[in-house]
Amino acid sequence: MSTHSKTTLNANVETARESDADPRVLILAAADNVGTAIADIAAGTSLKLRGKTLASGAVPMGHKIAVQPIAQGEKIIKFGAPIGSATRPIAAGEHVHTQNMKSDYLASFGRDGSSRMLQGH
Amino acid sequence: MLGYLRSDGRKGIRNVIVVAYLVECAHHVSREIVSRFKHLPGQPVHLIGFPGCFPNKYANQVMTKLCTHPNVGGVLLVSLGCESFDRANLGKAIQASGRPAGLQIIQETGGTRKTVEAGVKWIEEALKTIAKVPRVEMSPADIIIGTICGGSDATSGLTANPAIGLASDLLVEAGGTSIFEETGELIGCEHHMGGRARTPELGKELIRSVEKAAHYYDVLGHGSFAAGNAEGGLTTLEEKSLGAYSKSGSKTIDGLIKPGDVPPRGGLYLLDVVPDGEVRFGFPNISDNAEIVELIACGAHVILFSTGRGSVVGSAISPVIKVCANSVTYRRMSEDMDIDAGRILESRGSLEDVGRELYGKILRVAEGEQTCSEGLGHQEFILTYKSFEPIWPSCLPVIR
């Protein structure tokens, strides 16, 4: 974590706009392997991200989308910093959330009280 | 800009009377007293209090700092009579500050109705007295802001939080003070934050405060992460943290304070809200208003509150400016929102535009303009049990 530079954490919407990303997806820093949907994106939508066209899963506004394939155990990078790890292989275009990633620190909880912290931590 | 001059030299942007219950048993009587003044413009009589009957040093400290806050002109203490709260010392501190200080003891005055009538009479007089408090010229350098996020979603970290960071930078450049907080929501950012400290010793303390928070939440088995955060697209605590961290802007961090510590001079400060010692009394801050109260106890005149999901809260004592992170929520709840930071996502303005709009709003609210939550009568307040050790000398800047 100590390797973060100030510039990566000051990533913001304007710098994101300068990238070649589809306007519906913001990629906040060059090192990121996920983008953020700023509109609801329907399953099967064709998105051009980082020069490649990929088929998106259903991704609600504010949620994350994989912009490249991510291996199981690999860090999920957003704001240029790790926000957790993949709990299974994730395909480019897939919705990235509690079903395929986990915190490296503490569990996240659902409204039913179920822990989303996955095994092995 | 004119402020209300207090005897300690601090200047207030509001001049309110606070009714403070010293145990839950005195809450209803206090609320009845406050309700008699709801019709007054600006609703200048606010309700605060501590529900517990057992003594607590932290609660004493926070209540003392709130009752002598620059936005407060006078205080009516309401005691049942048998609770442990040290009402004598609190009363002395208020008197020593030159403010009108009243005390009603329900068991001595003779019950609910008599205490309400006596309290109302006292406040009618106190309002006349505090109307004479001198107004003096005030500048941005006199202002302390506290920054907080609540009802966060993934857009909070993209728009509203960085806009708050920008407004915070502008205030610090003008000589003012900005306090950011919730070390439990900075888990994952500690090393970056340590690198922004004024001194290496302070950097170590900043990192230690977040490690303390991580341990505390680990023992409790639940981090600062609500179901609505996940519905809004945030998956992990550290993802929420990185978004929250951007509220701190880009300035050098000048100090680390604890609830009730007033920053000794302008600059950027981290407020450590997680108790010291072994884990007891439950969650550090059980809801957003508990954090707001601590920021105000550190002298914050104004609170900047970022929300993506849409919080409606305000606060007793200091106005809360709500910065809405996306325009979907803004349009749905516009009466409750002061700033639409979501326009950044809709290409209707840049981050800098929103940051400057927010800074302008801080100054206008300091001049007396009502925030949305003030206009709607929001005066939420909550204070619970905690315990802290004093800060280390290396946590504060050297005063020259």
What order do the helices and strands come in, and which of them pair?
The complex is a heterodimer of chains A (121) and B (400).
Chain A: H1 6-9, H2 13-17, E1 25-26, E2 34-37, E3 46-49, E4 52-55, E5 64-66, E6 75-78, E7 81-86, E8 95-96, E9 101-102
Antiparallel strand pairs in A: 1-2, 2-5, 3-4, 5-8, 6-7, 7-9
Chain B: E1 2-5, E2 11-12, E3 16-21, H1 27-35, E4 45-49, H2 57-67, E5 72-79, H3 87-96, E6 101-105, H4 106-109, H5 112-130, E7 135-137, E8 144-149, H6 156-173, E9 177-181, H7 190-194, H8 200-220, H9 227-231, H10 237-245, E10 253-257, E11 267-271, H11 288-297, E12 302-307, E13 320-324, H12 327-332, E14 339-340, H13 351-366, H14 372-375
Parallel strand pairs in B: 3-4, 3-5, 5-6, 8-9, 8-12, 9-11, 10-11, 12-13, 13-14
Antiparallel strand pairs in B: 1-2, 1-7
Helix pairs in contact in B: 1-5, 2-11, 6-10, 6-13
Structure write-up:
The complex is a heterodimer of chains A (121) and B (400). Chain A has two helices and nine strands, in the order H-H-E-E-E-E-E-E-E-E-E. With 121 residues, chain A is mainly beta. Mean pLDDT of chain A is 78; it is low at 1-8 and 115-121. Chain B has 400 residues and is an alpha/beta fold. Chain B has 14 helices and 14 strands. In chain B, the strands form three sheets. Chain B has a seven-stranded parallel beta sheet with strand order 10-11-9-8-12-13-14, with helices on both faces. A four-stranded parallel beta sheet of chain B has the order 4-3-5-6, with helices on both faces. In chain B, helix 2 (57-67) packs across helix 11, helix 6 packs parallel to helix 10 (237-245) and helix 6 crosses helix 13 (351-366). Chain B is globular, with a radius of gyration of 20 Å. The interface between A and B is large, with 41 and 45 residues.
